[in-house]
Amino acid sequence: MTSAAPRQPTLKDVARRAGVSVTTVHIALTERRDGVRVPEHTRERVRRIAEELGYRPNILARNLKTRRTSTIGFVSDQITTTPFAVAMLGAAQDEAARRGYLLLVVNVGAQAPSSVQRQAVDLLLQQRVEGMIYACMYHQVVTPPPGLPPSTVLLNAADADEVYRGIVPDDRQGGHDAVKHLAEAGHRRIAFLDDEGGVVAARLRHRGYVEALDEVGVDPDPRWHVAAAANVRGGLEIDRFLDLPPESRPTAIFCFNDRQAMGAYRVARRRGLTIPDDLSIVGFDDQEYLASELDPPLTTMRLPHEEMGRRAVRLLLDEADPGEQDADDHAVRVHCPLVRRESVAPPAVIMQSPLIMQSTSIK
Fold first, then answer.
1. Are 182 and 52 in the same domain?
2. 247 close to 185: Cβ distance less than 8 angstroms
């Protein structure tokens, strides 16, 4: 026969031990006065006794009275299990705590069916959360699960039906700024190693790539655009750029992400090329423990995960983000900053119309 669980101490137990009324205990523990003055020494004694007894307030009962829980629901696909994107969660937690809110997190896993996502939403709504954030590991357009409150904010995602507001990285501007940085270093033959998966970010970064080349009067050669896997193996595809004739061979490569750039480094070394003297490379993401540790350290565009997490909480609680304009996809775009390191230098060979001038360096 199992013994019954020990009874949790109540306000009455604390009041009886302290020799005061239940009202006095309530005021002492909740910092509320309600017109009743409780001497500081009494407050301290009540708090000490409550701690000795192991008293814990009945949060559910308090919430029923105040109709507030000061909690925010956070539903994610796989953010909590992926170090690369977990900064969004950490920043959201910090911003919520700064405002006196607690984040209740449910991770449903990648490719979770709609029924599981709906179950997660229902679970959080049963906890009477005051708002909801629906977060994705990478920038995507989604159809959110049914049942989300109208005030819900999507994090790293945009709503396909444009019902819910979203926070996304400005991938188009990021692609533009990456190529602009290479162009300012003197490069005109700039290749883009794209993602073959067709994700939203790839389309937007390619658009930025084309716009930046157009601004410097360069008509991109179709051979400068190759789609590959978004990993180190995909970076090996820069062989296709380096096999081009010398007069059309790229002097710089913009990679869809840092992992591709890592593969590109391997190819460059195998061919006896030095980065950045013979070939400049820019990545995207600023992935921790990767971009800064390559040799030489990789210049890259940083995904603003921390800023996005903070902005999601602010947008949810303030219902406005005056610092940004809504994007076409009903989401607020957050700037991706350029992280300058050592993988970009002026090209060793420059084109001057109508002649081709060669130089060992234009540094």
1. no
2. no
